[in-house]
Specification:
Layout (H helix, E strand, L loop, with lengths): L5 E4 L20 E4 L4 E3 L8 E11 L4 E6 L2 H4 L3 E4 L2 E2 L6 E8 L5 E3 L4 E9 L27
Antiparallel strand pairs: 1-4, 2-10, 3-9, 4-8, 5-7, 5-10, 6-8
C-alpha cells in the first residue's frame, strides 16, 4: 500500500521530497531540500544548531507520520539532525534542525539536500504499568553489553 502525502509549497524554491532510488530496491527515505541559505557555526558556539527551512507543509493521512533522518554524506562530516518527528496532525512548515559537530563552520545553500524524510505507519500503543517484567536473555544489558 502506498501512502499519499499532500504537499504544499510555501516558498518558490521549495522542492518536493524525492527518492534517489525507487523500485523494488529503492530508498527508505526521500531527500529534503533547503530553501534558504544558512551558516552553522562551529561546534559549541551559538548558531551551531539551526532550524533550516524546507518551504514545505505536508498533510499526512491519520495512519502515517514521518521521521527526519540524517543524510549519511552529511553525518560523516559531522552535520546531524535533531528533533525529527512529524505527527500526522502537524500542518506547519517542515524545518530541519541541523547541528554542526565540527570545529569549522558549515554552509547550507538553497537546494542542498539537508535530511531525509522516512514515512512511518502510526501505531498507538497502550502503556500498562506492571510490578515486574518477564525475563529475557539480554536482561538489562544496554550500551556496550555485547562486548566491544
Amino acid at each position: 500500500m502506498q501512502a499519499v502525502i499532500k504537499v504544499l509549497k510555501l516558498h518558490p524554491s521549495a522542492q518536493l521530497p524525492r527518492y534517489a532510488h525507487t523500485g523494488a530496491w529503492g530508498d527508505l527515505a526521500a531527500d529534503l531540500y533547503a530553501t534558504t541559505p544558512a551558516t552553522l557555526a562551529p561546534a559549541g558556539q551559538q548558531g551551531s544548531t539551526l532550524a533550516v527551512a524546507t518551504g514545505l507543509s505536508m498533510e499526512f493521512p491519520a495512519t502515517h507520520g514521518a521521521l527526519v533522518e540524517d543524510r549519511s554524506g552529511l553525518a560523516i562530516r559531522g552535520i546531524t539532525t535533531l528533533a525529527g518527528v512529524i505527527d500526522p496532525g502537524y500542518r506547519g512548515e517542515i524545518k530541519i534542525v541541523l547541528t554542526n559537530l565540527n570545529p569549522a563552520p558549515f554552509e547550507v545553500a538553497v537546494g542542498d539536500r539537508i535530511a531525509q524524510l522516512r514515512i512511518v505507519q502510526r501505531i498507538e500503543a497502550t502503556f500498562e504499568e506492571v510490578a515486574e517484567l518477564a525475563e529475557a536473555p539480554r536482561g538489562d544489558g544496554g550500551f556496550g553489553s555485547t562486548g566491544k
